[in-house]
């Protein structure tokens, strides 16, 4: 998996985003200076497949409040979602699913899928009436049966594009 450095990112934060030890990232990138990154720099993140080798892609619109699942660039399904509320915006950009945790407890419903952005994920909810609204702390909320279905379909490493 290749990560492209964005403005303001540090190697330590990138390691936290991918839940990958900093030492593993440094080892996978010989010659890298962990204290000097530049915008557009390509960094190998070990342990994840190249998202381009996965037939699935997830496209999320925060304004329209939908999540679309594509396989081989063909729309398979569209799901309603809830997104971040004021002061807790859902992050915009390209991410990947880095892990899955069934029954995470609390307000996260019956499934949690972490994104490659620390503290953010796609998850179920214990409040189905919140779907369709801007109410979360930045995560993508789905109906429990929808997030369970999605988690059964997409593998770790699936690309997630979040936009307005």
Automatic annotation (TrEMBL):
Pfam families to which the protein is assigned, alphabetical: LysM, YkuD
Pathway the protein takes part in: Cell wall biogenesis; peptidoglycan biosynthesis
Residues of the active site: 123, 139
Keywords in alphabetical order: Cell shape, Cell wall biogenesis/degradation, Glycosyltransferase, Hydrolase, Peptidoglycan synthesis, Transferase
Domain L,D-TPase catalytic: 56-163
The keyword Hydrolase belongs to this UniProt entry's keyword annotation: yes
Top-rank lineage group of the source organism: Bacteria
Annotated family: Belongs to the YkuD family.
UniProt-recorded name of the protein: L,D-transpeptidase family protein
């Amino acid at each position: 998996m290749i990560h492209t450095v964005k403005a303001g990112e540090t190697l330590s934060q990138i390691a936290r985003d991918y839940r990958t030890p900093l030492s593993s990232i440094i080892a996978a990138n010989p010659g890298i200076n962990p204290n000097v990154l530049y915008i557009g720099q390509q960094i190998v993140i070990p342990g994840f497949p190249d998202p381009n080798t996965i037939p699935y892609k997830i496209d999320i619109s925060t304004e329209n409040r939908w999540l679309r699942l594509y396989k081989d660039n063909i729309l398979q399904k569209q799901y309603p979602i809830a997104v971040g509320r004021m002061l807790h915006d859902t992050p915009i950009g390209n991410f990947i699913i880095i892990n899955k945790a069934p029954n995470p407890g609390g307000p996260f419903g019956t499934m949690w899928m972490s994104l490659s952005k620390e503290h953010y994920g796609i998850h179920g909810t214990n409040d189905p009436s919140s779907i369709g609204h801007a109410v979360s702390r930045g995560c993508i909320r789905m109906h429990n049966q929808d997030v369970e279905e999605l988690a059964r379909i997409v593998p770790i490493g699936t690309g997630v594009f979040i936009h307005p």
